[in-house]
Amino acid sequence: MAQVRGCNIPEDRFYWVEKHAWARPEADGTVTIGITDVAQNLAKGIINATPKDTGRTVQKGKSAGTLESGKWVGPVTSPVTGEIVEVNESAKTKPSLINSDPYGEGWFVKVKPVDWPGESAALVTGEAAVAAYRKFMEEQNLNFE
Questions:
Q1: Is 8 exposed, middle or buried (0-12, 13-18, 19+ CB in 10 A)?
Q2: What structural domains does the chain harbor?
Q3: What is the DSSP letter of 53?
Q4: Is the pTM of this model over 0.90?
Q5: Cα 32–37–42 angle (5° rounding)?
Q6: E strand or H helix at 70, and its extent?
Q7: pLDDT tens track for 20-78
């Protein structure tokens, strides 16, 4: 796992850097979605996680639900279009999981994608993701070390 200015960037995820969202394809064809370590550092202590309900369709670039911290409320932007097939009930009950483990227990929703091969082509992964986050954080003067 790479570290950029105090934030973890696992190379096995697909990222939409500008939206601070990650996606991970699963063996069953679903895609797990969450927010990045950069996003949780910017938000600080997350106090409420409200994903949209299972069965709902989300569009790429639209909200899969909202997060709330002490000073901020904002969307978790979906990097893919599809049907929500599972929400992270643990994160709804204990939103701090999104701060403490944004790539593991703090995932947000699982989606059955409509076009993963097509939509994932617009996301960055591996070394390209690390480089994109390094550039973004330098441009925004962000450092969480």
A1: middle
A2: 18-116 (2.40.50.100)
A3: P
A4: yes
A5: 125
A6: none
A7: 999 999 999 999 999 999 999 999 999 999 999 999 999 999 999 999 998 889 999 99
